[in-house]
Design brief:
Elements (H helix, E strand, L loop, with lengths): L6 E5 L4 E4 L6 E6 L4 E5 L2 E7 L8 E7 L2 E6 L13 H15 L3 H19 L6 H17 L1
Antiparallel strand pairs: 1-4, 2-3, 3-5, 4-5, 5-6, 6-7
Helix pairs in contact: 1-2, 2-3
């Protein structure tokens, strides 16, 4: 998204609520000392920092009177990856990142890659992904009926 600076009038860097793309914490991201810049249409660009003492991640924001319009790095969907193998988490995180920037085809491809990783991890067999997913389904049905 391209923005053209309309005026350099200082605007106090008010807190902008969002989930930190660095640590995942929901918080009001605080200004880092620089004024925001008016880019027209009621939109302002500025820099924020995560208030979490363990993070303090740097974020660029576009907002309308404190309501977030865009941020970079973008926030992604939060999920608990603690019990998931690293290769599956890596593929899924890439799918989420693609989705967060509007690259939906790339996101779908990475979701497919995530499914392939799950099948590999669970030892599913079959000539293609559809067959491997069907194999997983049969295994789950067998486990559920046992």
């Amino acid at each position: 998204m391209k923005f053209t600076v309309k005026t350099n009038t200082p605007f106090d860097a008010r807190p902008v609520p969002l989930r930190c793309p660095h640590c995942g914490r929901e918080a009001a991201m605080v200004g880092i000392g620089a004024h925001d810049i008016d880019v027209g249409g009621g939109l302002w660009c500025g820099q924020r920092m995560c208030p979490s003492p363990g993070c303090k991640g740097h974020i660029f924001v576009v907002h309308r009177q404190g309501t977030l319009v865009e941020s970079y790095p973008p926030s992604t969907i939060d999920f608990d990856s603690s019990a998931i193998p690293p290769n599956i988490v890596s593929s899924f995180n890439e799918a989420l990142l693609c989705h967060s920037v509007g690259s939906f085809v790339a996101s779908a491809l990475m979701v497919r890659r995530t499914l392939e990783e799950v099948c590999l991890d669970k030892g599913a067999t079959g000539k293609d992904l559809k067959a491997r997913i069907a194999d997983l389904k049969e295994r789950l049905l067998f486990l559920a009926s046992s």
